[in-house]
Amino acid sequence: MTTNKSLLDEHISKSGLKITFIAEQLGITVQSFGQKRNNITSFKAAEIYVLCDLLNITDDKDKIFLP
Q1: Do residues 63 and 7 make contact, with C-beta atoms less than 8 angstroms apart?
Q2: What is the pTM of this model?
Q3: How far apart are the first and last CA of the chain?
Q4: Neighbouring residues of 43: CB distance < 8 A, sequence distance ≥ 6
């Protein structure tokens, strides 16, 4: 699975949430979150669900998390 980093970063910026808080909510480290954002590793389905809820992602979900 590929992540559209720029679109995800745009939603993170709009949310005003800190990366550390987002990583904590996902139950992962900041380093692991960075690896997932940079397509080194993939987000799990449960992590995508939490991210979409935290960042209020609805319409862009398929654009950000491409199969």
Answers
A1: yes
A2: 0.91
A3: 5
A4: 1, 3, 36, 51, 65
Residue 65 is given by DSSP the state E
Tokens of 57: 């992602």
53: left (phi > 0), else alpha (psi -120 to 50), else beta? alpha
**Residue 30 is which amino acid?**
V
The domains located in the chain, with CATH, are: 2-58 (1.10.260)
Q: Counting every residue, how long is the chain?
A: 67
- Tell me: the pLDDT tens digits for 26-66? 999 999 999 999 999 999 999 999 999 999 999 999 999 98
Residue 35, φ and ψ in degrees, nearest 5: -65, -40
